[in-house]
Amino acid sequence: MQASVRAVAALMLCASSLAPAQTGSTPPPLKRTEIARADVSVPNREAIVAHVEIAPGATAARHTHPGDEISYFLGGEGELLVDGQPPRRLKAGEAFIIPAGVVHAARNPGSEPARLVGVYVVEKGQPLATPAK
Q: Would I find Signal among this entry's keywords (predicted)?
C-alpha cells in the first residue's frame, strides 16, 4: 500500500513540475491520474496506465519519459509537439508512440479538455516525466 501511495505522490509531483504555478481555481494545464501499475517482462521496467487531461488552451511543457509512451486519444483537440517533427493534430481514435528520452510537448487548442489514455513502459524508480529545456 505504501508503495502505491508513493507512486501516486510521484505522479502528482511530475504533473505539477511540468506545469506553471497556478493561482485560484484555475485547473492545472496537465493532469495525470494513474489507473494501473505493474511489472512487465523486461527486467527493471514497469507499465503505468494513466488517464491524461490537458486543459483547454493549455500546453503541457516540453518533457521526456524514462521509457516509451504509447497513448490513445479519447477526445477534445490536441497537438503533439515532438522535437524535430512537424506538429501533429490529434482527435478521438488516434494514437501515438514516443520513444524513451524523446523531448515532446502537447497543446490543447480547443475549448474542452483534451483526454487520452497513456501507457508508459518505464524504468522502475525513475520519475515518470522530467522537464526538458
A: yes
Q: Which residues contact 82 (CB under 8 A, 6 or more apart)?
A: 88, 98, 102, 103, 104
CB contact set of 21 (below 8 Å; sequence gap of 6+): none
The count of structural domains within the chain is 1
Show the domain range for 118: 2-131
Whole-model pTM: value is 0.79
88-121 b/e (C-beta count within 10 Å ≥ 16 → b)? eebeeeeebebeeebbbbbbbebeebbbbebbbb
Q: 3-state DSSP call for residue 43?
A: coil
pLDDT in tens, 41-90: 999 999 999 999 999 999 999 999 999 999 999 999 999 999 999 999 99
H or E element at residue 63: strand 59-64
